[in-house]
Structures are given as structure tokens and as C-alpha cells.
Amino acid sequence: KQEVTQIPAALSVPEGENLVLNCSFTDSAIYNLQWFRQDPGKGLTSLLLIQSSQREQTSGRLNASLDKSSGRSTLYIAASQPGDSATYLCAVGADRGSTLGRLYFGRGTQLTVWP
Amino acid sequence: GAGVSQSPSNKVTEKGKDVELRCDPISGHTALYWYRQSLGQGLEFLIYFQGNSAPDKSGLPSDRFSAERTGGSVSTLTIQRTQQEDSAVYLCASSFGGRADTQYFGPGTRLTVL
């Protein structure tokens, strides 16, 4: 079974810092990988989706990389802002038969950016 | 346009009662998913619909859990004879095509079983 681990579990930084959130997964047979943001009491917002054939995706201040063979992904947040405070979830999509595309989630990194 | 909506937003019930949770996906999205997020746990997949059929329901934790989707749109997740361990946030998501597409999540239903 696919296992997804996110490090660190929590992170507290001052505004303006550049951040790296880490995600690792045990089965490299993935279809894609997504990074989500979850705000308290709300659902998940998709930030970036990387197909298994891609190495990275960028959106504004966010950059996500994927190294499928080593089972790792990183989410880079540039020039962090208090509005970035949220829980960031990594999810990998399965690449096998009937479970194709099924998402397996990590437990998230809780980020706090203080002014 | 409207996103994924779920109702109710909060549900408190007594152990042993049945509950129904509703999900309205984004219009035109053919795929629909249910997940559960328990305190201290990650998000767990429950069931996946493509149209009205459920090709993957392997995540349903027991036969007390069932789900249906009608008209390729609204879905209902039913939990019979609720137990305290069923307390969680139940999230619904939809995607335009198959499972490999970006999933858009609703705000969730917080279920508390007393």
C-alpha cells in the first residue's frame, strides 16, 4: 500500500522567508502528484498538479518538483506571507489497475507565517 | 461558477442512528469522490464514482457505509448504525474527467457521534 510522509509536521516562520515542504512516497508507480492547501474548517484547494512524466510545476510564488524514482516531492514557497498560513497536503495518484488515479494523502505540514 | 457543495456542514447524532450526507459536485464533472478525515489521521479515500457507477469502493470501512449517485450529479453517503469512531470530517470532491484530473473539494461535513 502506498504510504505518503510529509516533513516537517509543523513549521513556524517570519514573513518573507523562503520555505521548503517535503513529501515522500513509498511506491514510485504513481500517475500524478498534487499539492493541496487546507484552511481551518474548510475543504482542500488544489495548488499544483504534476503528472508523473513532469519534473516540476510553477504557479506564482509556488514551485513543486517531483523525483519519481526516489519517491520525493518538494513544495517551494517563495517570500512567504501571513496569508500562506494553512495546512499543506501532498497526495499521490496511484498508477495501478482499478486504483488508477486514487489519491493517497500525507498528514500534512501545518504552516504558520507571522508578520 | 459554483464549487462543490456539501450538506449539512455539521451533524451531531447519537450512536446507533443513521445519517445521510449530501454532495453536489461541480456541474459537468463526471467523477465524484468521498474522503474521510479523522482527528489525527490523514485523509482516507472512501469511494469513487464515474457517472452513476462506483468502480472503486474499496475504501468503505464497513458494510454500514454505502453511497449512491443519481443522474450523474448528486451523491449521498449513508452511514447506518453510527459508531463513535465514525466521527470525522467527510469531504467530497469532483473532477471533470477521470481520476487523474485535478480534484476540487467541498467544505466538508463534520460528523459527531455522541
Could you please describe the fold and organization of this structure?
The complex is a heterodimer of chains A (115) and B (114). By secondary structure, chain A is mostly beta strands. Chain A is 0% helix and 58% strand. Chain A is built from no helices and eleven strands. In chain A, the strands form two sheets. In chain A, strands 2, 4, 5, 9, 10 and 11 form a six-stranded mixed sheet that branches. Chain A has a five-stranded antiparallel sheet with strand order 1-3-8-7-6, with no helix packed on it. Chain A is globular, with a radius of gyration of 14 Å. Chain B has 114 residues and is mostly beta strands. Helix content of chain B is 0%, strand content 50%. Chain B has strands spanning 5-7, 10-13, 19-24, 31-37, 43-50, 53-56, 65-69, 75-79, 88-95, 104-105, 109-113. In chain B, the strands form two sheets. In chain B, strands 2, 4, 5, 6, 9, 10 and 11 form a seven-stranded mixed sheet that branches. Chain B is globular. The mean pLDDT of chain B is 92. Classes of the chains: A mainly beta (115), B mainly beta (114). The interface between A and B is medium-sized, with 26 and 24 residues.
Q: What is the first-to-last residue Cα distance of chain B?
A: 37 Å
Percent range for β-strand residues of chain A: over 45%
H-E string of chain B: EEEEEEEEEEE
How many strands of chain B?
11
Task: Give the secondary structure arrangement, pairings included.
The complex is a heterodimer of chains A (115) and B (114).
Chain A: E1 4-7, E2 10-14, E3 19-25, E4 30-38, E5 44-51, E6 56-59, E7 62-67, E8 72-77, E9 86-94, E10 103-105, E11 109-114
Chain B: E1 5-7, E2 10-13, E3 19-24, E4 31-37, E5 43-50, E6 53-56, E7 65-69, E8 75-79, E9 88-95, E10 104-105, E11 109-113
Parallel strand pairs in B: 2-11
Antiparallel strand pairs in B: 1-3, 3-8, 4-5, 4-9, 5-6, 7-8, 9-10, 9-11
Briefly summarize what is shown:
The complex is a heterodimer of chains A (115) and B (114). With 115 residues, chain A is mainly β.
